[in-house]
């Protein structure tokens, strides 16, 4: 096996693949894709295990435990996220892109990059709960169902990314 990494997949082929997976999710599961619901299911199950009275008296937790499923592995979104992790690992291994590194520009330290990633990820997680959906749920599922709120989110995300790009570009030079 060569040490040279395989070229990246075609974004057009990857887009068609995501569309097929989304269509199959609608046909087979009766709902679209998303990620934040999986984390909510895991948190609700953990709270139910440690403080069942609190979980039963809280509308948020009770909503995730209403069907009696206290095992997060019974939630198909949890299995979806596990599949994403396994698929990403397999893809990286097959393409020869597995290595222990921190992707960053020369203007930022590894530590700062990891802190920024953690803060950004946390902000995205909080935003996903406030928006009642994550980028995959709002962008893919909501966009496919022509939800006005989802399309407004997609537009706002792109506008925000383009506006923030000049501010963070220095760290990658």
Describe what this molecule looks like in 3D.
The mean pLDDT is 85. 68% of the residues lie in helices and 0% in strands. The longest helix is centred in the last third of the chain and has 21 residues, at 110-130. The radius of gyration is 19 Å and the shape is globular. With 173 residues, the chain is mainly alpha-helical. It has 2 domains: 1-99, no CATH class; 102-173, no CATH class.
List keywords for this structure.
2 domains, mainly alpha, globular, 0% strand, 173 residues
User: In which range does the helix fraction lie?
Assistant: 55-70%
Distance between the termini: 32 Å
Tell me the domain tally: 2
Using only CA atoms, what is the Rg?
Answer: 19 Å
- Overall shape: globular
Largest sheet: none
How are helices and strands ordered from N to C?
HHHHHHHH
Total number of strands: 0
How many distinct helices?
Answer: 8
Uncertain segments: none
Give a concise summary.
The chain has 173 residues and is an all-alpha fold. The chain has helices at 11-29, 36-50, 52-56, 59-65, 76-95, 110-130, 135-144, 148-168. It is built from 8 helices and no strands.
